[in-house]
Amino acid sequence: MLSTGIKAPDFTLKDKDGKEVSLSSFLGRKVVLYFYPKDNTPGCTREACAFAGAYIGFKQRNVEVIGVSRDSEKSHANFAAKHELPFILLSDPELTAIQAYDVWKEKNLYGKVSMGVVRSTYVIDENGVIEKVFEKVKPDTNAQEILDYLDGKAE
C-alpha cells in the first residue's frame, strides 16, 4: 500500500461510457478512490450499494467517489445500471492504477493462491496528496467508515 502524505499517482482510465477520466481533474476536491475485485460479485455489490446509499453524504462534503476494478467499461455500465450507482466507475484492465496504488496482491482463497485486487480505499485531499489509507476494508462498512473519518469520528 502507498503511504499517507505522498502525492497520489495520477492516471487516466475510461469510465462506463468510454470517457477518459484523470484523477488530476479532481484537484480542488477530496476524492475517495476505492479499489474492488469484480463487478456483480456479492461483496463488491454490497460495497458499491453502500457507497450509493451514502453518496449524498459524500456530495454534501464535496467529496467525489470513484470505484476502480479490472472490469470492462460494458461491465461497469451494466453494474451501474443494475444497482443505480451514481458515482464514477473506472475500468483498469491493464492494471495501471491498480498497480500504481499497490493493491494487486497475492491472495489465498480456499487454498488457491492467485493474484487479485485487495479491497482498499484511499482518501486523497484537495491537493492530490494521499490523506488516509484503508486496507482490507469490509464491503458492508467501508462507505460509513470513510464518512466517519471525513467527519473526524474515526482514525
TrEMBL record:
Lineage, broadest ranks: Bacteria, Bacillati, Bacillota, Clostridia, Lachnospirales
EC number: 1.11.1.24
Entries under InterPro entries matching the protein: AhpC/TSA, Peroxiredoxin_AhpC-typ, Peroxiredoxin_BCP/PrxQ, Thioredoxin-like_sf, Thioredoxin_domain
Cellular component, GO annotation: cytoplasm
UniProt catalytic activity: a hydroperoxide + [thioredoxin]-dithiol = an alcohol + [thioredoxin]-disulfide + H2O
GO BP terms, alphabetized: cell redox homeostasis; cellular response to oxidative stress
Alphabetized UniProt keyword annotations: Antioxidant, Disulfide bond, Oxidoreductase, Peroxidase, Redox-active center
Similarity comment text for this entry: Belongs to the peroxiredoxin family. BCP/PrxQ subfamily.
Gene Ontology MF terms in the entry: thioredoxin peroxidase activity
Keyword flag Oxidoreductase: yes
Name of the featured protein: thioredoxin-dependent peroxiredoxin
Function: Thiol-specific peroxidase that catalyzes the reduction of hydrogen peroxide and organic hydroperoxides to water and alcohols, respectively. Plays a role in cell protection against oxidative stress by detoxifying peroxides and as sensor of hydrogen peroxide-mediated signaling events.
Keyword Oxidoreductase in annotation: yes
Domain Thioredoxin: 2-155
Active site residues of this protein: 44 (cysteine sulfenic acid (-soh) intermediate)
